[in-house]
Amino acid sequence: MNLKQELQQLNNRLDKLRRKLAGAKDRGDQAIAGQAMQEIETITKKINQVKGQKQRQLSKQSGDVKSLAFKRALTKAEQADMGKLKKSVKGLVVVHPMTALGREMGLKEVTGFAPKAF
């Protein structure tokens, strides 16, 4: 299971536990409320761990892409025919500024990274 799926499952469990806690408080059931609070704390810690792991993975990927020797912004014509561009440039990595990787790298426009000039 990848980190995105694991994070989604944990958030779903957290949401269910919060609803369970609200119901237990409405009924005045202290035992179930206390148990739900403990589970909420453990799941919150787990969510923070997964988010940290995801951030480290993204930083590593960003470093790998930045280490490629050549980079430049792609023109609109190149973006329109991405298949042709990727076939002509060996090892091309295209990063869009709205993706998580693009935000991590601080890009403002669609940029291509490659081992050689293109």
TrEMBL record:
<dbReference type="InterPro" id="IPR021230">
    <property type="entry name" value="DUF2810"/>
</dbReference>
<protein>
    <recommendedName>
        <fullName>YibL family ribosome-associated protein</fullName>
    </recommendedName>
</protein>
<dbReference type="Pfam" id="PF10928">
    <property type="entry name" value="DUF2810"/>
</dbReference>
